[in-house]
Every structure is written in C-alpha cells, then in structure tokens.
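anyone seen this seq b4? input:
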Amino acid sequence: MSWIDWIEQHLLPCPSKYFLGVECPGCGMQRSILELFRGHFLDSLKAYPGLIPVALTLVILALHIRYKFENGARMVQYSFMISAGVIVISYVLKQVQFYNP
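predicted toks r here
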C-alpha cells in the first residue's frame, strides 16, 4: 500500500456536509490533492478547480518572502484574488448543477 492510498483511506470529512448536508467551498480539495500526487492533472482540476491557483499563490508568496520582489505583495494580492474568484465561481457552478440536475 502506498502512502497515497493510506491518505485516501484517512481523508477528513467535511463538517458542513456532515452536519448540514451542504458542501462547503473547500469540498473536493483533498481528493484533488491526491489526484495531483498521482499525476492525474485533469482529474485534479475536475475535483477542485481552485487547487492549482491556490498552490501557485503559495509559491508566489514563498518566493516573495524569500527574495523580497519589488512588486511581490501586489503579485500575491492578485493571485489571491484570482484564486478566490476561481473557488467562488466553481462553488456556485457546483451548487447550480446540484440543484438543477
């Protein structure tokens, strides 16, 4: 058994989905990370479209902290806004598909 299989068997449940029956904007991120580790890029995007922009935002932030880019703070702000936009839009589309199959 690989470490990815072990993690897959120990995923954390979503409290919002468990208690309220409604997915939260972060639902699918764990599955998306696992698919990315397996090398399934498109399956990762399908599971959670916001993962790649969030990961890029974290990389930009880490590089800015380390190398103090001149416009690094602005780059982090823009990448954060793009990430948040992708998460909100994908969440709304998922809810529309859920209620109108």
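The chain has a mean pLDDT of 94. The chain has two domains: 1-47, 49-101. kinda curious what u guys think
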